[in-house]
Design brief:
Blueprint (H helix, E strand, L loop, with lengths): L1 H18 L14 E7 L5 H13 L6 E7 L4 H14 L3 E4 L8 H9 L4 E5 L20 E4 L2 H16 L4 E7 L5 H16 L3 E8 L4 H13 L6 E4 L2 H13 L9 E6 L2 H9 L4 E4 L5 H12 L7 E3 L4 E2 L6 H6 L3
Parallel strand pairs: 1-2, 1-3, 3-4, 4-5, 5-11, 6-7, 6-8, 8-9, 9-10
Antiparallel strand pairs: 10-12
Helix pairs in contact: 2-10, 5-6, 7-8
The structure holds alpha-L-arabinofuranose.
């Protein structure tokens, strides 16, 4: 820990130097980086890739880290194996971006027994009984940084209510992978919207696993069957891209014949908001690397980071959106 603290103080000095116009360089005398095992969900979406890049940039060798990245290909079992490998290797920290909310208790007990701090990012996990606590009320992980997915969903539903008023909506719902916080929160919001708006009809609901290909297939199949709808509630941008492809292939105009509501606000999707193909895009910010770096620095200094950090996120529609805004965003 002390060794790392020195390294981080050095890093802070180098960053300060860099901010003052100097250029940071690695300390040639220092050879022991902070080792972080990062279990990533997969590479299912642009969001996920931006998240991975953010982590790699923040926890880089130049910043004094050795990052061991494990891509679980959207499989929880692979993540549990990766965590056990990290524990076996004796990493300094574990970062977990969990596929689903449940099923982590045993391996988190193992990490705790090994004295390895675990930082959860993006989606939430549940401990036994309470969120993130064991049966004795003890924390199963050190801290969590991520999004409030229910709030994101509520923002989308509020936009639909404000925009469409009493107009009948026939909605196709493209869900993320079942059991993930992003799916659970956004789905709960749409369900609440459906209950509160009797003129909204759920025409179809299926999981596209947050991927473009599956979403394109789902929408293509519905259109081929002659199912008609005027709204697609896509639980991420990549599924919106797939839906747009399928609509266009069927001769329909996204944003005119069918309105698309999406989540993430990747740059590519915001370009589609500008062209009118996506009507509303709720931000889900993937740039957790610097946030994790800050938490590790706090832990190295012996401080206690906040247990839960929710990222502030906005909503994008064509109103007020410009190319400059899109270009200035980090993903
Ligand atoms: O958990 C965040 C979600 O996971 C993003 O909305 C989605 O694009 C990603 O795959």
């Amino acid at each position: 820990m002390k060794k790392h603290l020195i390294m981080l103080l050095l890093l802070a000095a180098l960053l300060l130097l860099s901010a003052c116009g100097g250029s940071p360089s690695a300390d040639p005398e220092y050879t022991a980086p902070i080792v972080v095992g990062f279990s990533q969900v997969g590479a299912e979406s642009d969001w996920r890739n931006a998240n991975t890049r953010s982590m790699q940039t923040a926890l880089s060798a130049a910043n004094g880290f050795r990052l061991i990245l494990d891509d679980a290909q959207q499989k929880k079992e692979r993540q549990i194996t990766a965590l056990r490998n990290f524990i076996h290797q004796g990493v300094d920290y574990i970062v977990l971006a969990p596929t689903t909310e449940d099923g982590w208790d045993t391996v988190l007990y193992e990490a705790r027994a090994a004295g390895i701090p675990v930082i959860i990012i993006d989606r939430m996990i549940y401990g036994e009984g309470q969120i993130g606590l064991d049966e004795n009320g003890e924390p199963l992980f050190t801290c969590w940084i991520g999004s409030d997915f229910r709030t994101q969903g509520d923002k989308a539903v509020r936009w639909m209510e404000d925009t469409f008023g009493d107009e009948p909506l026939h909605i196709v719902h493209l869900q993320g992978n079942y059991g993930s916080s992003a799916q659970i929160g956004r789905t709960a919001s749409l369900d609440a919207g459906l209950a509160a708006n009797p003129h909204w009809t759920l025409v179809a609901r299926d999981s596209g696993d947050f991927t473009q290909a599956k979403a394109q297939e789902i929408i293509g199949t519905l259109l081929a069957r002659g199912v008609s709808f005027n709204v697609i509630f896509a639980e991420n941008d990549n599924m919106a891209y797939g839906a747009i492809e399928a609509l266009k292939a069927a001769g329909l105009t996204p944003g005119v014949d069918v309105h698309i509501i999406s989540f993430d606000a990747n740059q590519r999707a915001l370009e589609m908001v500008l062209t009118g193909e996506i009507s509303c895009n709720v931000e889900c910010n993937p740039l957790h690397g610097p946030r994790v770096l800050e938490v590790i620095m706090q832990l190295e200094r012996g401080e206690t980071p906040p247990r839960y950090t929710y990222v502030e996120e906005g909503v994008f529609t064509i109103d007020g959106l410009t190319q400059d805004i899109i270009d200035s965003r980090g993903y």
